[in-house]
Every structure is written in C-alpha cells, then in structure tokens.
Write a structure and sequence with these properties.
Elements (H helix, E strand, L loop, with lengths): L2 H4 L16 H4 L16 H10 L2 H5 L18 H19 L3 H10 L8 H11 L6 H16 L6 H8 L10 H24 L10 H7 L3 H16 L9 H19 L8 H16 L7 H8 L4 H10 L3 H12 L7
Helix pairs in contact: 3-6, 5-6, 5-10, 5-12, 6-9, 6-10, 7-14, 8-9, 9-10, 10-13, 11-13, 14-16, 14-17, 15-16
C-alpha cells in the first residue's frame, strides 16, 4: 500500500549527501514546494519544521508508550520516545559524519501514525480494518495524506523511506535511516526499563549479569557503550551495525524486556480493555460516518475507502480523546435538573 508512494527500489543505500548519485531523488517531493529567494534551510530542515508544527506531532504527547494513561508525570509517552530517538540518532550521525538534518527528521517523524494505547491499539485496528493497520505505514499515510486537511506534508523521499522502514523487518535505503532504526530500539529498551523500575516492576539488579558484563549495569553505562560500539563498528562502512558481542547482548536485553515488561501481566493488565474500546469505536463510527471530522468526511468524498478512513480517524486519536469519545457514546450521563 505505502510502497506505491515511496518506490523503495529506486535508491541505493548510502549517505544522503549531494555527492550521492541519487541525491535529486532523495530530496524529491510529490509536489513542488514554495521556495523563497533567500531560502537558507535545507530540504530536510524544511521537513523537520513541517513535522513539528503538524497536528500528529502534537498529539504524541498524549499517546501511550508502554504504560497507559499514567498519573505519574515522569512516565514516558510517545513524544518523549521520539525525543530520545532523536537524541541518540543525532550523536551517532554527528560522530559518523552523516547527514544530521535527515537523521533528526526521520527520528521525530517515525511514530507519527501510532494509534492510541500504543501497540494494543495497533493490534485492535489491524484486527478489524480490512486494510490492516501498521503504525509505520500509517505514519507515512499521515504525512502523505492525512495532515493539513488531506493535503499531507509533502515530505522528501528519503524522510518517508526512513519512516516506513524504521522497524526491525524494514531496511532504510540511507545510513541515516538505519541509524534511526537502531536508535529506536536502544531508546525504547532504556526508557521502558526506567519506567518499569519507577513502577516497581523491575530493579537494575534484575538485569542478567551476563548482559551487564558486556554493555554495562546502568542506563548511562549501556547507552554510552552502545553509542561508542556503533560508531567504532560502523565507521567507514556502508552500513550501521554493532559488534557481534554487543549485538548479542542487545538481543538478550530485548528478550529480557519482553519477558519481564512487555508481556508482564501487571504492566499490561489494561490492554484488553484498550483493545475492546478501540474496536468498539471502530464499529460505531463505521455505522455513523456523519460523525467523523470534516477532514475525514472530505477523504471519503475524494474516494478513500470508508473503512480506511474510519481507521484513520481512530488511529489519530490520543488516549484521552478515545476514552472521552467512548464515554460520550456509551456511558449514560446523569440528568441536570
């Protein structure tokens, strides 16, 4: 579905610089972009600005990372996650002499299409929408179609490729995109571990010693070790990678986090309710299209499939907006006499 817009086979891998033979394709847009006579920003800087001013970016501050609707102000939300990814990606791109602007832009945009309630909401929509729902594809759909009243943000080719391919199953065409792909994993493992410790689900001492002996025993030690290892292993090469021993430690740390946090019954105790809520809203709006937002109705009038647009509407919701809509529709209110 998204591949029609991005044409993934058009670019060879490498750094996004004017010296790359595919540079003009890398910075290509679907539509011409207004350029001032005194334009001082690069193409990727312009994309960065368009993203941080978008509605989808603003909504991420009220979307779940791992823990639902936390009352603790220090628990990570989706927008903090992309900020962490941007920070790690920036350091790596700078040390490796790559395009910092492209790296930072992919980093802040890679989760724009995430649903309310994190991956629970993603699973729920994927189960009921005949077109499926994957947050990486939805992120591209968001910047291509949904933002600005159906006009999209008109981002460059390589930013969109990096967004689409940031997951483990994907492989971005540029080294900058590959930095974000790896930084995403490093970021979520560490801030999710911090949140789990804050919630009393883990302690630092629970991390297996065999992992700590390779990459460190604290968040700071691990982050420092990962960054230095990636730089030393990737420098001068046509890929972004870890050394074999650190990559294996990373794999074991992810497995530990899936066992102790991501599949933890206490941490995930509300996921079933969230999935039910999302699917119930989908069913309701599927039969009440007139209650969709004006922008969404406009998409249907332009020929977008109704099921796809209902999925767009619910997928864009924040946690609290989805809860409020569910209460408005299904929870009786008392009379005010």
């Amino acid at each position: 579905m998204m591949n029609e817009n991005i044409n993934l086979n058009a670019l060879k891998q490498g750094s996004a610089t004017p010296e790359n033979s595919k540079w003009k394709q890398m910075i290509a847009r679907k539509k011409p972009l207004y350029t001032a006579n005194t334009e001082i920003r690069s193409e990727f800087e312009r994309d960065y600005t368009r993203i941080i001013y978008s509605n989808a970016f603003k909504r991420m501050k009220h979307k779940t990372q791992v823990f639902f609707s936390p009352t603790n102000d220090h628990i990570c939300t989706r927008i903090e996650h992309v900020n962490y990814v941007e920070s790690i990606s920036y350091g790596l791109a700078k040390a490796l002499g790559l395009n910092i602007e492209l790296t930072k832009t992919i980093a802040i945009a890679h989760d724009l299409g995430h649903s309310p309630f994190g991956h629970a909401g993603e699973r729920a929509l994927n189960a009921v929408c005949p077109y499926g729902f994957k947050h990486n594809e939805q992120s591209v759909r968001t910047v291509d179609i949904l933002e600005k009243g159906g006009q999209g943000l008109n981002l460059t080719y390589e930013v969109r490729d990096g967004i689409l391919n940031h997951q483990t199953a994907g492989m971005p065409m540029t080294l900058e995109g590959r930095i974000v792909r790896l930084s995403d994993k490093i970021a979520y493992i560490h801030h999710d571990m911090d949140d789990a410790i804050r919630a009393g689900i883990l302690t630092e001492a629970d991390v297996p010693r065999e992992i700590g002996e390779v990459i460190g025993f604290t968040t700071g030690e691990r982050l420092d070790h990962f960054i230095h290892d990636i730089v030393s292993t990737s420098y001068g090469k046509d890929d972004i990678m870890m050394s074999p021993s650190v990559a294996e430690a990373m794999k074991k740390l992810r497995a530990f986090m899936f066992e102790r946090v991501y599949k933890n019954k206490e941490a995930k105790s509300e996921e079933g309710k969230a999935e039910m809520l999302v699917q119930t809203l989908y069913s309701y709006y599927r039969h009440h299209l007139e209650l969709l937002s004006e922008d969404m109705i406009g998409l249907i009038n332009r020929g977008e499939p109704e099921e796809r647009v209902v999925c767009d509407y619910i997928g864009a919701m924040t946690d609290r907006f989805a809860i409020a809509k569910y209460e408005e529709i299904y929870i009786p209110r008392s009379w005010h006499i």
